[in-house]
Amino acid sequence: MNKLFIYVIVMVAMVTAVSATTLNFVSGDSTTKYSYDYTNWYDSMPTWVYPSWPAIENATWVWSSYHVTDEEALDGSGASFQRVVVLPDCAKNIQASIHIDADNWFFISLNNDFVGQNWDWTQPQTFDLNMVPGNNILDISVVNTPLNQGTWETNPAGLVYSGTVTYDCDEEVPEFGVIAGVAAVIGAIGVFVFSRKH
User: Fold this and answer.
1) What percent helix, strand, coil does the chain show, rounded to 5?
2) pLDDT along the chain (198 residues), means of 10
3) CA distance 88 to 133
4) Within-domain flag for 126
5) What is the pLDDT of residue 30?
6) The pLDDT value given to residue 127
7) What CATH number corresponds to the domain at position 82?
8) 35, 82 Cβ separation under 8 angstroms
Protein backbone atom coordinates (compact mmCIF):
# COMPACT_ATOMS: atom_id res chain seq x y z
CA MET A 1 0.00 0.00 0.00
CA ASN A 2 1.41 3.33 -1.04
CA LYS A 3 1.04 6.30 1.23
CA LEU A 4 1.47 9.92 0.16
CA PHE A 5 2.06 12.68 2.68
CA ILE A 6 1.95 16.36 1.75
CA TYR A 7 3.51 18.83 4.18
CA VAL A 8 3.19 22.59 4.31
CA ILE A 9 5.45 24.80 6.41
CA VAL A 10 4.46 28.41 7.07
CA MET A 11 7.44 30.66 7.68
CA VAL A 12 6.91 33.94 9.59
CA ALA A 13 9.62 36.59 9.54
CA MET A 14 9.68 40.16 10.87
CA VAL A 15 10.77 42.73 8.29
CA THR A 16 11.36 46.46 8.68
CA ALA A 17 8.98 48.88 6.92
CA VAL A 18 9.16 52.68 6.84
CA SER A 19 5.98 54.62 7.62
CA ALA A 20 5.63 58.34 6.81
CA THR A 21 3.66 60.61 9.15
CA THR A 22 2.47 64.22 8.98
CA LEU A 23 1.62 66.09 12.18
CA ASN A 24 -0.12 69.49 12.24
CA PHE A 25 -0.30 71.79 15.26
CA VAL A 26 -2.11 75.13 15.50
CA SER A 27 -2.97 77.86 17.98
CA GLY A 28 -6.52 77.86 19.27
CA ASP A 29 -6.69 74.96 21.69
CA SER A 30 -5.64 74.36 25.28
CA THR A 31 -2.27 72.92 24.24
CA THR A 32 -0.96 76.48 23.85
CA LYS A 33 -0.07 77.68 27.35
CA TYR A 34 0.71 81.21 28.54
CA SER A 35 2.62 82.62 31.49
CA TYR A 36 3.57 86.00 32.92
CA ASP A 37 6.43 84.67 35.03
CA TYR A 38 7.60 81.59 33.08
CA THR A 39 6.74 79.48 36.14
CA ASN A 40 2.98 79.20 36.27
CA TRP A 41 1.37 78.16 32.99
CA TYR A 42 -2.30 78.47 32.02
CA ASP A 43 -4.45 77.60 29.02
CA SER A 44 -4.61 80.31 26.39
CA MET A 45 -7.96 81.21 24.87
CA PRO A 46 -9.35 82.58 21.61
CA THR A 47 -9.12 86.35 21.68
CA TRP A 48 -11.00 89.20 20.08
CA VAL A 49 -9.77 89.49 16.49
CA TYR A 50 -8.70 92.89 15.26
CA PRO A 51 -10.22 93.40 11.77
CA SER A 52 -6.81 94.05 10.14
CA TRP A 53 -5.06 91.00 11.59
CA PRO A 54 -3.92 88.48 8.95
CA ALA A 55 -5.58 85.07 9.01
CA ILE A 56 -3.66 81.80 9.11
CA GLU A 57 -5.56 78.78 7.84
CA ASN A 58 -7.01 76.48 10.53
CA ALA A 59 -5.45 78.58 13.31
CA THR A 60 -7.09 80.90 15.86
CA TRP A 61 -5.74 84.11 17.37
CA VAL A 62 -5.15 83.53 21.08
CA TRP A 63 -4.16 85.48 24.18
CA SER A 64 -4.39 85.18 27.95
CA SER A 65 -7.86 86.76 27.89
CA TYR A 66 -10.60 87.58 25.40
CA HIS A 67 -9.11 91.08 25.06
CA VAL A 68 -6.55 93.23 26.84
CA THR A 69 -7.67 95.82 29.35
CA ASP A 70 -7.67 99.49 28.42
CA GLU A 71 -4.79 99.97 30.82
CA GLU A 72 -2.76 97.26 29.03
CA ALA A 73 -3.60 98.83 25.68
CA LEU A 74 -2.38 102.21 26.92
CA ASP A 75 0.77 101.04 28.70
CA GLY A 76 1.57 97.96 26.64
CA SER A 77 1.59 94.33 27.72
CA GLY A 78 3.29 91.02 27.03
CA ALA A 79 3.14 87.30 27.71
CA SER A 80 5.12 84.12 27.16
CA PHE A 81 3.52 81.25 25.27
CA GLN A 82 4.60 77.64 25.07
CA ARG A 83 3.70 74.68 22.90
CA VAL A 84 5.12 71.17 23.29
CA VAL A 85 5.26 68.96 20.20
CA VAL A 86 6.04 65.31 20.97
CA LEU A 87 7.60 63.05 18.34
CA PRO A 88 8.15 59.30 18.77
CA ASP A 89 11.62 57.97 19.55
CA CYS A 90 11.72 56.27 16.14
CA ALA A 91 11.25 59.56 14.24
CA LYS A 92 13.86 60.26 11.56
CA ASN A 93 14.14 62.42 8.42
CA ILE A 94 12.26 65.08 10.38
CA GLN A 95 11.15 68.23 8.56
CA ALA A 96 9.19 70.92 10.40
CA SER A 97 8.11 74.53 9.96
CA ILE A 98 5.83 77.11 11.55
CA HIS A 99 3.82 79.96 10.03
CA ILE A 100 3.34 82.57 12.76
CA ASP A 101 2.21 86.11 13.53
CA ALA A 102 1.69 88.24 16.66
CA ASP A 103 0.64 91.76 17.56
CA ASN A 104 2.92 93.67 17.92
CA TRP A 105 6.07 91.56 17.77
CA PHE A 106 7.32 88.14 18.79
CA PHE A 107 10.49 86.19 19.53
CA ILE A 108 10.45 82.40 19.05
CA SER A 109 12.83 79.66 20.17
CA LEU A 110 12.79 75.86 20.00
CA ASN A 111 14.41 73.78 22.74
CA ASN A 112 16.22 76.96 23.89
CA ASP A 113 17.64 77.63 20.41
CA PHE A 114 16.72 80.89 18.67
CA VAL A 115 14.40 80.44 15.67
CA GLY A 116 13.34 83.95 14.64
CA GLN A 117 11.45 87.15 15.37
CA ASN A 118 9.19 89.62 13.65
CA TRP A 119 8.31 93.25 14.34
CA ASP A 120 5.64 93.66 11.65
CA TRP A 121 2.33 92.07 12.59
CA THR A 122 0.93 92.74 9.11
CA GLN A 123 3.35 90.15 7.66
CA PRO A 124 3.20 86.60 9.06
CA GLN A 125 6.52 84.76 8.91
CA THR A 126 7.51 81.17 8.20
CA PHE A 127 10.45 79.50 9.97
CA ASP A 128 12.04 76.08 9.69
CA LEU A 129 12.16 74.13 12.94
CA ASN A 130 14.94 71.73 13.92
CA MET A 131 12.80 69.22 15.79
CA VAL A 132 14.08 65.99 17.35
CA PRO A 133 12.53 62.76 18.67
CA GLY A 134 10.88 63.29 22.05
CA ASN A 135 9.66 66.61 23.48
CA ASN A 136 10.08 69.76 21.40
CA ILE A 137 9.36 72.93 23.37
CA LEU A 138 8.37 76.02 21.41
CA ASP A 139 8.70 79.22 23.42
CA ILE A 140 7.12 82.37 22.02
CA SER A 141 7.46 85.76 23.70
CA VAL A 142 4.92 88.34 22.53
CA VAL A 143 4.95 92.08 23.25
CA ASN A 144 2.09 94.48 22.59
CA THR A 145 3.65 97.94 22.52
CA PRO A 146 2.04 100.97 24.24
CA LEU A 147 -0.34 103.20 22.30
CA ASN A 148 -1.18 106.77 23.32
CA GLN A 149 -4.90 106.89 24.14
CA GLY A 150 -5.06 103.20 23.23
CA THR A 151 -8.05 101.03 24.11
CA TRP A 152 -8.60 97.28 23.88
CA GLU A 153 -10.20 97.83 20.46
CA THR A 154 -7.46 100.06 19.02
CA ASN A 155 -4.43 98.30 20.53
CA PRO A 156 -5.25 94.60 20.93
CA ALA A 157 -2.78 91.76 21.54
CA GLY A 158 -2.70 88.28 20.06
CA LEU A 159 -0.75 85.30 18.73
CA VAL A 160 -1.55 82.94 15.87
CA TYR A 161 0.40 80.07 14.32
CA SER A 162 0.19 76.89 12.29
CA GLY A 163 2.94 74.28 12.18
CA THR A 164 3.64 71.09 10.24
CA VAL A 165 5.98 68.18 10.99
CA THR A 166 6.73 65.25 8.70
CA TYR A 167 8.86 62.29 9.70
CA ASP A 168 9.55 58.63 8.99
CA CYS A 169 9.51 55.75 11.45
CA ASP A 170 10.84 52.21 11.06
CA GLU A 171 8.43 49.54 12.21
CA GLU A 172 8.55 45.77 12.18
CA VAL A 173 5.76 43.99 10.32
CA PRO A 174 5.25 40.23 9.81
CA GLU A 175 5.98 38.68 6.42
CA PHE A 176 4.57 35.25 5.67
CA GLY A 177 6.09 32.63 3.38
CA VAL A 178 5.04 29.07 2.53
CA ILE A 179 7.25 26.05 1.83
CA ALA A 180 5.43 23.03 0.45
CA GLY A 181 6.68 19.55 -0.39
CA VAL A 182 5.65 15.99 -1.00
CA ALA A 183 6.88 13.03 1.03
CA ALA A 184 6.14 9.66 -0.43
CA VAL A 185 6.44 6.69 1.82
CA ILE A 186 6.19 3.39 0.03
CA GLY A 187 5.49 0.34 2.08
CA ALA A 188 3.57 -2.82 2.33
CA ILE A 189 2.12 -4.55 5.32
CA GLY A 190 4.90 -6.52 6.98
CA VAL A 191 7.42 -5.61 4.23
CA PHE A 192 9.67 -2.51 3.96
CA VAL A 193 12.05 -1.77 1.17
CA PHE A 194 15.35 -0.21 2.28
CA SER A 195 17.08 -0.34 -1.05
CA ARG A 196 17.91 -3.97 -0.48
CA LYS A 197 16.18 -7.21 -1.41
CA HIS A 198 14.90 -9.70 1.15
Assistant:
1) 5, 60, 40
2) 43 58 91 94 96 97 96 95 97 98 97 97 98 98 96 97 97 51 38 42
3) 6
4) yes
5) 75
6) 98
7) 2.60.120
8) yes
Work out how many domains the chain is built from and give that number.
Answer: 1
- 70 lies in a domain? yes
Q: What's the 3-state SS for 131-191?
A: CCCEEEEEEEEEEECCCCCCCCCCCCCEEEEEEEEEEEEEEEEEEEEEEEEEEEEECECCE
pLDDT of residue 190: 41
Residues in the chain: 198
Full domain range(s) for residue 126? 17-174
Give Cα separations from 128 to 40, 92, 110, 165, 180 (angstroms): 28, 16, 10, 10, 54
152 inside domain: yes
CA distance 25 to 63: 17
In a domain, 122, yes or no: yes
The residue type at 175: E
| pLDDT for the residue 19 | 87
Q: Closest by alpha carbon to 92, among 25, 162, 24, 165?
A: 165
